[in-house]
Design a protein that fits this description.
The complex is a heterodimer of chains A (270) and B (216). Chain A is of the alpha/beta class. Chain A is built from nine helices and ten strands. In chain A, the strands form two sheets. Chain A has a six-stranded mixed beta sheet with strand order 6-7-8-3-9-10, with helices on both faces. Chain A has a four-stranded antiparallel beta sheet with strand order 2-1-4-5, with helices on one face. Chain B has a single domain, classed as MetI-like fold, CATH 1.10.3720.10. Classes of the chains: A alpha/beta (270), B mainly alpha (216).
Chain lengths: 270, 216
């Protein structure tokens, strides 16, 4: 494996009891590559992305993250390996998961101080710089409760970036946001991509995926159904499953079987 | 009445001090043992989990007075002779540990799963995660039932008078016997307990409010 591969996932399978969440998924992510994972709800996308930093264990396959290996089914990795991986892989969650008892600044400072033993003053400077970069310098002392969803997610991104990660994972970062706040969060992610950060994101923002991602992966029914250059997959999907999904998402009103599709009323029949 | 109260006030104050000492010692024991129980209860070792559950079920079910007598007389019979004060502390502490461990558990459970995931994703150790993320949030959920439990504990300390500990209740009983004025003396005792209750519940309620306010 060449060293320009940041994350190498081989034949990953995950089960919850008798239920298979996803099966036999392989994916390679190069350094500075942006990979968008799309697909219908319940396809296992979130569970899959959480396996990469081992928030979820998995049953089969293996993941090589930045040179450290996670193996499925085996005993859980050592704490040292886990911490190695997690301090180099940042994550932003759908529900933000900011620490409610800390200010925005406190949230961003905590990781470096606790997991890297960074002195408080240094952590504070770093946190302030990160918040300033996403336009939140004035909100630094606000508690999460007082922040809008978009602000919370931007703080959460800063919190992850404070660890100087080499890879960032985004688990549906905008799907809990009011529509007018999606833009500010996507802008922050776009900036990261521009800086050459390796990004893996689960998203429903197709336009964003088309614009920012190099690679799009379509997951459906617990399988990886299609994978390729973003524009190609989104505009000319090769598989039926991907095509059905994209049709429904991109043209929700026209899609076959949609409750909003034009229907003929019984009384109009001749 | 006021004259009698005045006369016995020093005795009552001495009793108050003992009652507070019993409360404090029992509270420390209950919180420490409760923390151990909740650790065992939510931990990975099955035997410890079952032991903790068994302990909680048993001690919750036995009246505190029975525990007080067991700690003083029954333990004494098998050669563990505790002074009345410590027998009372042990009985109250053992009982309230069971209640506190349940309050602590629900406090811990009230913390959203996502908090744990966020801390793990940052690469924090389990210890750091507990200290900096989980416990500060669990505390807030623990305070209201914890305060409630504490006011019950204060009242239950009056049971130690049955094994001869010179607490507030003991002093009231003595004074009542000496003066044949049970009305006056027990009302005074009641007033003292009431004052305790008001003091402690107000202090804790204010603390709770402060913690909440600081986080918004």
């Amino acid at each position: 494996m060449s060293s320009d591969v940041a994350v190498d996932i081989q034949h990953l399978t995950k089960r919850f009891g008798p239920r298979t969440v996803f099966e036999d998924i392989s994916l390679q992510v190069k350094r500075s590559e942006v990979v968008a994972i799309i697909g219908p709800s319940g396809a296992g996308k979130s569970t899959f992305i959480r396996c990469i930093n081992y928030l979820h264990p998995f049953d089969e396959g293996r993941i090589r993250v930045l040179g450290r290996e996670l193996v499925g089914g085996a005993a859980p990795p050592s704490k040292a390996v886990l911490r190695e991986i997690r301090t180099h892989v940042g994550m932003a969650f759908q529900t933000f998961n900011l620490f409610p008892h800390l200010t925005a600044l406190g949230n961003v400072m905590l990781g470096p101080m606790e997991a890297k033993r960074m002195p408080r003053a240094e952590a504070q400077d770093k946190a302030m710089a990160l918040l300033t970069a996403v336009g939140l310098a004035e909100r630094a002392n606000a508690y999460p409760r007082r922040l809008s969803g978009g602000e919370q997610q931007r703080v959460a991104i800063c919190r992850a970036l404070a660890m100087d990660p080499e890879v960032m994972l985004f688990d549906e970062p905008t799907s809990m946001l009011d529509p007018e706040m999606v833009g500010e969060v996507l802008e922050a992610i776009r900036r990261l991509a521009g800086q050459g950060m390796t990004l893996i994101l689960v998203t429903h923002e197709m336009m964003f995926a088309k614009e920012v991602a190099n690679t799009v992966v379509v997951m459906a029914d617990g399988r990886l159904v299609e994978q390729g250059p973003a524009r190609e997959v989104l505009e000319h999907p090769q598989t039926d499953r991907a095509r059905t999904f994209l049709n429904r998402v991109l043209k929700p009103l026209a899609a076959e079987g949609s409750p909003l599709a034009p229907v003929s009323l019984g009384g109009d029949h001749p | 009445m006021l004259q009698l109260w005045q006369q016995y006030l020093p005795d009552f104050f001495a009793g108050v001090v003992v009652s507070l000492e019993v409360t404090g010692a029992a509270l420390v024991l209950a919180l420490a043992l409760g923390a151990l129980l909740v650790t065992a209860r939510t931990g990975r070792v099955r035997v410890l989990r079952s032991l903790a559950v068994g302990y909680i079920e048993i001690f919750r079910a036995i009246p505190v007075l029975v525990l007080v007598f067991m700690a003083y007389y029954s333990l004494g019979q098998v050669g563990i002779r505790l002074p009345g004060f410590w027998a009372g502390v042990v009985a109250l502490g053992a009982f309230y540990a069971a209640l506190y461990s349940e309050d602590m558990r629900s406090g811990l459970q009230s913390v959203d799963r996502g908090q744990r995931e966020a801390a793990q994703a940052l690469g924090m150790t389990n210890g750091a995660m507990m200290r900096r993320v989980i416990l500060p949030q669990a505390l807030l959920a623990f305070l209201p039932p914890g305060t409630n439990e504490l006011s019950n504990l204060i009242k239950d300390t009056s049971l130690v008078f049955t094994i001869g500990v010179a607490d507030l209740m003991f002093q009231a009983n003595q004074a009542s016997a000496a003066t044949f004025q049970p009305m006056d003396m027990f009302v005074l005792a009641g007033l003292f307990y009431f004052a305790f209750y008001i003091l402690i519940s107000r202090i804790l309620a204010r603390w709770e409010l402060n913690v909440q306010r600081r986080r918004s």
